[in-house]
## 1
Amino acid sequence: MEESVINNYRKGASSKSKHKEADILEILDQLIENRMQLIRLYIETQKKEKVLSALLPLKVNKDIQDELRKIEEENDLVLLSKFNILINENLRNEPSAFIYEKVGSQFQHYFFDEFQDTSELQWQNFVPLRDHSVATEYTSFTLVGDPKQSIYRFRGGESKLMLDIINKKEFSPKEADLLVLKDNWRSARNIVQFNNELYRYHSEGLEEEHKNIFGTDAEQSPKSKFDGRVKVNLIENLTNEEFYEDTSERMRKDIQECLDNGFKFSDITILCRGNFDIFSYSQKLGNLKVKYHGEETNIKTISDKGLTLELSNTLKAVIEFLRWDINPKNKPCLIMMMYHLNTLGKIHMADFTLEMKEILDIESHEEILLFLQQKYSLQLKQDNFPRFNLYNFIEYYINEFSVENKETDFLLNFLEMLFNFTQNAGASTKEFLKYWDEEASSYTIQASENIDAIQIMTIHKSKGLEFPIVFIPMINKNRDNEFTNWFETNESDALKSVNINQFNKNLEVYDEQIQEFNKKNSYKNLIDRLCLQYVATTRPVEQLFFYLQKANKTSNNLELLEFLQTKNTENADEFDLYEVHPEMLKKYSKTKSSSFKTQNIEDLKNINEKSTSIKIATPSKNYQVRNEKVRIGLFVHELLSKINTEKDISKVLEGYALEGQITIEEKNEIETTLREIVRTYAEFFDEKWEVINEKIL
């Protein structure tokens, strides 16, 4: 780039300025040198600006560490995160024989699974174990892992440790014996073939240390008895929102086909890059319908990531009602309540603005409640329903606003959270609304895993799992150039390195340090992306579906799309990579049975219930409805804690009788029981013992 610019300068003046050409050529070398000096000064300025911008975060981090150190010293604590550091500091200068002499050699065989996710610090702490083990007879040191599935670099995982062992670059008293597992027992033949071809294609552009693990070593032999399917959907390059919409509709068609071929909702898993994707597909698919078991039904999805309580229209309607209930003049809350109920489908408002105007024209709060009951069948006044506590009060409206088979997971998680909150004595509606705004609304729901619903999860969580059918949607972008890493400042005494983001790519040609910094970190991000993609594409057992956003006119950010386009000879928007026929699309794998069965909750609460739905178990002696035998048993347990010898029985019981906590008849009955216990276990109630009762030892 720079060379072409210089050559262009040296070509001479244009035809219009030929009379000045000699003057220009005379000073051209000096001008070019001045230009380079300006560029070098600009680069130094850019470096210093980045260093300065990194100083404040470093200072804040140091202050945090200093405060943590004070807390540790004051409380005599050591944070768990520091254990690896402490172990490393104490072991790195000690010979392995000395360490084993101190701790004692208890194990002869070591087995490390998922080794590609081990951090460099952890490995340094394991090296003495390795060195001792490989130098001793009748021992073994086994590492199991797959560098292609190294997806936790952001948490310190360093796949290069395993790559160095594989490539014989790591110093060890004995070279490791390498065993590459080639048989694939999980995926159908076509899926295995697709992955072999895809990662062979990717490996061609990688550095030497990654060529083999994504190329030759990545190729597997399928052991499955069925062919399987790989289908590609190409989505027009639209806005992200339109991509979610179009992809969800394409997914609906594929889901319907899968259901028609004998699969269930729970056989399908959608793997997403992040939580926003989970939320988007969950919301959009939930509004689409398919034919399932002969009935038209909404697509049901579950996820334990990205779905927070505040996303539920039912709960949003309940919260708005509570705000309106404590302040009837707060009409905006009434409007929002009706809006969420209309969106949910609990009520139908053909013209929302017109109908809301009709409601707002009613002045009396009581009349509004009556109008909503008559026109929309919303029973907002709790007639003949006991308001035992805040839980029962809010639970009534959950039941009143909920729609069958919609948002059930949200509601059950909400009720659990509500119950925990109402254990605080005197919990009020205002306090709950404050709690909702500050904390509870962002609670992530925990969905039941064995419900018949499509799972939506992040690729990170899917690692190690398998699913009959996998959907992978991918927007056409990557974040290879979005990184922060430590950059050397070339300062020998003061600040040796700082944590900064990428430099402008235009500067790479003028500065080797910047070029190396950008290139090295962008490449690491590329490998991370390929590893994440590898985890996703190797999860399916029978069928794999892609939903890929097409490239725009100037660039493509998905190597996967480039590979698939080589297979798309007819330039279609939907195509199968391998030949399919109706019979091979049927479900082959057996459904895994779970030892835990989730019972379907038909109704959250019986609307005609006239008593509390909460059954309370309590040791309270004053609780009005109690089992007599349980009550007496609790008394005996409490009394025994106050009795050291048989002489104490009468005195203790007399005190309880005088306080009115037990009757004379109960006193005599309990005294008989206590004397039987004391005589049966006389050794424990002997006067020779010093009794320490319920005391910190």
## 2
Amino acid sequence: MRKKQMLLAGIVAGMTLFSVHAAVDQAKIDAVAKGELKEAKASYWGFDPQDSTKILQAAINSKVPRLIIDKQASPWISEPLRGVSDQTIVFEDGVELQAKRGSFKDKADTLLSLRNVENSRLIGLGKGGILRMHKKDYQNPKLYERSEWRYTLCIRDAKNIHVENMKFLSSGGDGIYIGTVDGVTVKKVVCDDNHRQGMSIICGKNILVEDSEFINTKGTSPASGVDLEPNWAGQPLQNIVFRNCRFANNDRWGILMAPSRFNSDKGGEMSIRFENCVAENNKEGEIYGFTRAIYQTGEPVVGKIEFINCTAKNDRKYGYLRPAVEMGLDVHHEMNIVFKNLTIQRGPNRAKALRIVFNNPREENVKPASTVEIDNLKLLDCAAGDGLGVIDCSFSGQTENITGSIVDRNGRKTEIDEKFLKRAGIKAQPEFSYDYSDRAVKVSGPADGKMEKYPEFPLPQEAKFWLYAQAGQDVEVAFKFIKIRRSEPAAVFLTSPSGERKRIGTLKPGEEQTFKFKADAAGIYKIDMAVTDLRVILSAANVAAGIIPRDIAQWVNNSTGTLYFYVPVGAPEFAVRVWGLVFSMREQAVKVTISNPSGKVVFRNNTVAEGIQYTAPESEAKKGGIWKITFDKPAKFRLGEYNFRIMGASPYLGLRPDRTPVLGEAGKAESGNKKHEVSPDDF
């Protein structure tokens, strides 16, 4: 009896094994190869419940025009697959393509790639097809090297792609990644529980996304529903349309637009449109966009971003004073932002419902060139005064750029006029600059001519420094270049008091180096270098030395310390401006303290993120003397990028009070309000 039971069990096991392994139908495969069959099932090539990678790739490589991934007893398990041109892949109702566990060890392994293809389609029948990965496995450092590029679907270098009625779940990167495409339609898809993004659009033209959901993204930044973010200056975002889509419960934003590397001279005008979309209950905010050219500073970003009949709402509090909707615009960019019939439910958050930021990224003081049209902003749970906030780091006070109307929770309509905008945050701040070029520069150095240490104050990128030497003096100055990421060696140039500029060496990353030269005349010598990263420090010199800030505004990154500046006796007025990085993914700020020559603190702000200006009273300015400004870690937000500008004073900043240049009495200071852009070249 026992032997019969064992025999029966063996027969049943064999039947089970046979039922989950589909037999290869060679006749059908041959017919596909001859072009006789235009439609084929993947199971013609077989089925392996443990690993169907070779089976599926062979089916795809057959180039049959219509390939059906047919339902089996269990999901199709696979390693990375690549699609081909002129093929429609159809998933039968509920069919699941699942990433093989333990595979996808390469950081960029993708479950399905449509790369270098044309006229490819991915269609789910019935309730749709499923592409599923194993996010928690990839997030485990014991199992996988950290990565944000293990996508479920990658569409790249492709044309005429159509994806419809599919789910993209639990990737180790994005549900869908789109880069360098022309003509992509995505309809009725769900991107759920992905590691980095529901969907990323890096570069593309003529992209339509409609009737889709991007939800529950959590793992690594930006952790948003969708992110439109070119990697390089010339990657266009043109004719991108989202219609009837939902972005919800993502760990950061629902909709993120971050073209920080983009340049319209190379990539053309930007055009992005959201219609009838809902962003709700995202952790950091519902809609967030910025055109901050951190890599192509001064180069243009031109185009149009529209939100038509969209809704942003939440039932939970965001991070510190986060608005539901925010748009940040560099002052020199020319964007047209349109909010038409935008509805906002602010929820328990205390921030403005909608915030516009005009940022001034360490460049010329210019008025904002972008326009913002707010047509019928509907507020569900706040008054008009809490509906719109403006941060104007241009300090220009220009109000013509923002127009429209607001309807508050009680149905009252308020026009966005000049008076309203000044209450919302647009305030003009005066500039002060005077011609002190006829005054002599005086500064003392070490009496014995030996090297002395200076307090460290790191400068990024275009770093400039001054030295004061006597004729015939042997000058030595030491710099540190702290290596970060891919720092490259920087050429170092010296400019003499006569204006002659020559190269004196190369500053190498990760080293402290000393440069030497003989002064041919008494006066200020300038040293400049264009480094590729963020941390150059003047560490020591055998003469008086210090920093030359950029002519208009000095950009700083993570630097703390005290700088000293001289205000000439009889100066009619001077001012100090400081502003942080307001619309980054995390606000970056700095604590600012300003003290007069007697040591009295005349200004202190523990968290400068929005622009502030300290204007010295005339009585203080006329006294002249050495003032100091101290930068420290902020009370709120994090220390990061900030800008400062000192107007109406000497442009030579000291790292020590006894090594700070003063303007002697060789000439006479200008009085009144004569404007003159003071720069180191004036001395």
## 3
Amino acid sequence: MHKTKKISLLGVFSIAAGAMISSGIFILPSLAFAQTGPSAIISYAMAGILAVIGMQSIIEMSTAMPKTGGDYFYIHRSLGPFVGTISGILGWLALSLKSSFAVFGFSEIVQTITGLPSNVTALILIVIFMLLNIRGAKEVAGLQIILVVFLIAIMILFCFSSIGHISAAHYKPFVPNGIAPVFITSGFIFISFGGLLKVANMAEEIEKPEKTIPKGMFLAVGVVTLLYAATVFGVIGVLDSGTLSVSLEPVAEAGFKTMGLFGYIIISIAACLAFITTANSGIMAASRYLPALAKDGLIPSFFAATRKGRKTPVPAIILTAGFMYFSLFLKLTMLVKISSTVILISYVLTNISVIVLRESGISSYRPSFKTPFYPFLQIFSIVVFSCFIFALGNTSLELIAGFILFCALVYVFYGRKHSSAEYALLHLIKKICDKQISEGVFENELRDIVFERDNIKKDELDHLVKTARVFDIDHALSFKSLILLILHKLTADLLLTESEIYEKYISREQDTGTCLDDFTAIPHIITPEGSPMRLIIVRCRDGIEFPSCKSIRCALVLSGPPENREEHLKILSQIAVTVGKQKFRDRWLSADTPQALKNVLMLERERHK
């Protein structure tokens, strides 16, 4: 049963943009300016460009595997349960910290206006979000779109209002601390683009993910990066360096100078709305990592427990909320560094995953969007993001190393005993070592995901292929030898003796050849009434010599009773259309398991919806 997919292109854009327009622009400019001066403009633009480059691997896997769980699901299915455990817990950590950052921003604004201590406001807000998520409150797509349009409009209004108040002297010197801090600051503010992981988490609910995800994410990053750079340019031009370096509301303060009290109020309202939606949606997305890990047997099943009727993961939500509150006691710069480091690690792992999936040769891995310039773009992303991770400093690295060690212990003492998933890295190792160490479970999972993604309904041919016997022969043989080889697999329920079956196939081939071309043949016979339809799949790398053609590499041996004559002819037609394509032939010859051969037949078919 397919889930109803309701998120459109505008919805994807709104989710991604709404998750990015938050603390990254309303608070971070002052911290970025303190590190690198006016060249923070370049740092924001560079971070956006790198996000576009790095996220392409996330988009590719999202279109191949549009499943809830996002980057965790992709990394677990490609690199295995050990790395999956690390990825899942770090993904939970990343979105929890990003949400904490948003709660911090909101509580600081409340403290400025009312004097209420920020830690009290933060606790109240987190408790409210926790209760809303336990109750099962859902994000309203229409409200999210309205909010994003409002935020973008306010940012554009500020940018235009700042033009007449900009002081050129504020940009001098443009690079006061040298080039290195410009690059380091790009990594520092990368938390601003952490919201992109949320789109991957919701991929299963997106309409036509193969087209909608790439368009929506590229559009969101492009628009937000331009807004970031333009807003930071305006803030630096309006505020003097002394004010900007210590401000926790740089955009609101700049708005006060350009538009008066109205500017301060409207920007503060926009910031509060952005913080609230980012924090609430963040706790919702973060808490979904833990049930996904629990369902895969990597952490105790307790974390997959849900509230009756609402299906909300109560233990996961409570743990996420508690972690968010206590993370607020970290220094702000450390909170940002840890968040950015975790997000950068996720980008590194997703790029490694794409390389593993592509090189594994799994026939069912069929992304509708493929990252260009493979594998150079992935290698570039891995190197650059790794450099950023190390550039963010030893303290954040030590904390992350501690979390990774904790994840490793969780896997060793629990996950290893309760998880037995197959993954793409096994296929790659098998390909390198030429050993059969996988059973095709992951290939089948990918195949079923493609069927669900493309809304494909399985028919009689799919059933025949799924239940078919497969013979993978590595030496040349004759047609008669082929029939003798598979004869014992045909006699079980066809209501004929071995000699009768043999004579039927030989006579059929002599009367009318069954070769479709020089690559494929479909030997087929009519069996007695009451017998089932059967298909046997044969690949012969060196070729089968039929009476009418010399080197058949794909033989699909079909049998069926007279009452299924119409279905019999329909299947012959479907096969004929499928096997004539060059793409089918290439994938048929490169498939490395019997299950992969079946999946090639099922996935290369032209479907008429």
